[in-house]
Write a structure and sequence with these properties.
With 257 residues, the protein is α/β, with parallel strands linked by helices. It has helices at residues 3-7, 49-57, 98-103, 107-110, 118-130, 146-160, 176-191, 203-209, 226-229, 232-244, 253-256, and strands at residues 9-20, 23-34, 38-42, 64-69, 81-84, 164-168, 195-199, 212-216, 220-225. The protein is globular.
């Protein structure tokens, strides 16, 4: 790989193995996500898709190999990452308003105890308007529908102004209109040159809206242009690999040596 190619990579995986309690969930992943790319991560249940996002965001350290973030930034500078976990991982009972939830998107710039100034308030209002939640500011998140909650979380992502945006099943169990509105925001981020990675199950959506796809089955099955990845042969191979995988398998001998 040339220096010029490395500089254009947002995320690079080098013989990456991720797992839990020394059991691999994703193993021997090599490749790169180009800066500004829009990529879907697909695969059967248990394929390691969410695990991969947790590895990128730093919530799960590699068992072996490396994840490198670049974006062509000066040496030592860190790329900003925004991460949206699955809806099931979010505590909706926490007594917080929509406005306060969205404000969390400013923490990376203002700090946990930083004050919210006039410019910040304008940005919060614009983010809420962008997702169609103007007038919802004082409502607690426990009163929101699934679609409204996802809109609020996307507003928080807007405020994070991140270089890399990771979305874990962002369109699951929400209505068609909300899906269309939020997918438009994903396209906007892509047009702005941000790197977007989304775990998805809707193959038709992937084919229509995501130019590149990584098909996982704990190991990479195919990675590249979406039409070339989502073939019947590749999808069948992915399903069979996951079904045959031993969930109690130790780290690969190549890693343990």
């Amino acid at each position: 790989m040339t220096d010029a190619t490395r500089a254009s990579d947002a995320i690079r995986f080098e013989n990456l193995t991720l797992g839990y309690d020394r059991h691999p969930a994703v193993h021997h992943l090599d490749g790169a996500l180009a800066s500004g790319s829009l990529t879907a991560v697909v695969g059967p249940n248990g394929a390691g898709k969410s695990t991969l996002l947790k590895g990128i965001v730093g919530a799960l350290p590699p068992l072996s190999g490396h994840i490198r973030l670049s974006l062509g930034r000066p040496r030592g500078a860190k790329a900003r990452i925004a991460y949206l976990p699955q809806a099931a991982d979010i505590d909706r009972s926490f007594p917080i308003t929509v406005y306060d939830l969205v404000c969390v998107g400013l923490w990376s710039r203002a700090g946990l105890f930083g004050s919210i100034g006039r410019k910040d308030r304008v940005q919060i209002e614009e983010a809420l308007a962008a997702v169609g939640l103007t007038g919802f500011e004082k409502r607690t998140i426990g009163t929101l529908s699934g679609g409204q909650m996802q809109r609020a979380l996307f507003a928080r992502l807007l405020l994070q102004d991140a270089d890399i945006i990771l979305l874990d099943e962002p369109f699951t169990a929400i209505d068609a209109r909300t899906t269309a509105d939020l997918l438009a925001l994903v396209r906007r981020w892509h047009d702005e040159g941000r790197t977007v990675v989304a775990v998805l199950h809707d193959m038709e959506m992937v084919r229509q809206a995501f130019p590149r796809t990584l098909l996982l089955a704990r190991e990479p099955v195919a990675w590249g242009e979406t039409d070339e990845v989502l073939t019947a042969e590749n999808l069948l191979r992915a399903r069979r690999l996951v079904e045959a995988f031993d969930t109690h398998a130790p780290v690969c001998a190549r890693d343990a040596a």
